[in-house]
Structures are given as C-alpha cells and as structure tokens.
Amino acid sequence: MKNTKKLAFLSAVVAGVCICRAADTPAPARDPDAKALPATSPLPGASFPDRTPRYKIGRGDVIEITFPRVPEFTQTVTVQPDGFVTLKGLEDGAELYVVDKSVPQFKDMLRTTYSKILHEPSINVELKDFEKPYFTTFGELSKPGKYDLRGDTTVIQALSLSGGFRDGAKTSEVLLIRRVSADISEVKKVDIKKMLKTGDLKEDPHIQPGDILFVPKSFLGKIDKFIPNSSVGAMMKPY
C-alpha cells in the first residue's frame, strides 16, 4: 500500500511538470545548475544566488509609520488580506499595495504619496508584527517540519536541524524548492552525497525564508527547473 501511495505521489509530481511544460508560454530550458533564464523568459533570472534578501512585507503584517516633523500623520497600519494598506491624512484616503515590497521600497512609496501634500516628508517605517522567517523540510528525514530561520543557514545545516537522513534517503538528489512568483516555484537539485564525500561545501546553497527542502527515497527522474505551485502542494501531502 505504501508503494502504491508513493507511486501516486510521483505521478502527481510528473503531472504537474507536464502541465507546466504544456503552457502557452515557452517553458524555461532544463538546466540542472539552475542558471539564470534567457532574457526572453517571463521569469528573468534565478533568485538562488541572493544570500542576503530583504524581508518582504506580507498580509497581516503590522507596520508603524512615523512622521517626526508632523506627528499628527503618525499611524499604525495592518496589511489587509488583499495586500493593501489604507493611509490617513490624505483626501478621500489612499491605498497602497505593499505585499512583497521591502521596507525601503515601502518608504519610497510613502514619500511619493505624501509628497503631494507635504514638502520633502521625513518618514520612518518599523515592522511591529510580522511572520517570522522559516523554512520547511519533508521527505526522508528524522524530524521533518517547519523551522524558524535564524541567521545564515545552508541546506546541509537545515537538514541537520531536521534530524538528518533516514535510511534509504536519496542524498544525491535533495530538492531545494523556492517560490519565485504566485504561480511558479524554482527547483534546484542539491547533491549532498557528493559534497560530504569530497568535503567541498562551496555548492551548499543558503536558505531563504519560505524555502522547502524535499529528500526523496526513490529516484524522481528529471525534474524541471520551474514547476507550478500546485504541484508543490501535491508533493507535500502525506503519502
């Protein structure tokens, strides 16, 4: 029964990849090294090399906006489920879409908006409540689950936090899955077996908030560099 469920899981992964490859937009060329896509791709460039990403504002975040020179404009806003915040002090109010914006980007948006009524406004922005950075591991690990991302963490370190590999884990084909848009996740194969054998950890990727690590038990075959997020959800279902 377990083997049947695992075969069904693999079929779901392959089906998701096929759907992605059959889309009208030309699919990215297969590249096991996860290099940047051609300039003609709708997803220009890979995000994996970025080791110091800025926090991206999310839904439900609480943000304090202070105006040192005009304290009456100081306010605390909450990012709504639709991704907008409502600002005070402007005629008829104003709404800005802030999801996936960094704090510096949000400050620039505020300066532009309030420059309509204030001369060279001085604005400070502070995150008061937000989702703490995390990563998720699943598959053939002793303690798979969701872990807080504290400081600079590599794939090997993340796998160690998850208790290490179970017997029979495919350590040469660990998958690092990173969401790059609302519809697409980027997949990179990480050969842990080779790194541990050679002692060369230069190819040990650094984890970013929201990353997913999957350790397979059996050979998954060729996996496209980009897959639909619906396939990622199917992969994470218990089997």
Can you offer a commentary on this structure?
The protein is α+β, with helices and mostly antiparallel strands and 239 residues long. The protein has two domains: 153 residues, Roll (Outer membrane lipoprotein wza fold like), CATH 3.10.560; 68 residues, wza like fold, CATH 3.30.1950.10. Helix content is 22%, strand content 22%. It has five helices and eleven strands. It has a six-stranded mixed β-sheet with strand order 7-6-10-8-9-11. Helix 1 runs antiparallel to helix 5. The longest helix has 20 residues. The N and C termini lie close together (10 Å). 22% of the residues are buried. The N terminus is likely disordered.
Task: Tell me briefly what this model is.
With 239 residues, the protein is of the alpha+beta class. It folds into two domains: 2-51 and 133-235, Roll (Outer membrane lipoprotein wza fold like); 62-129, wza like domain (wza like fold, 2-Layer Sandwich), CATH 3.30.1950. The chain contains five helices and eleven strands.
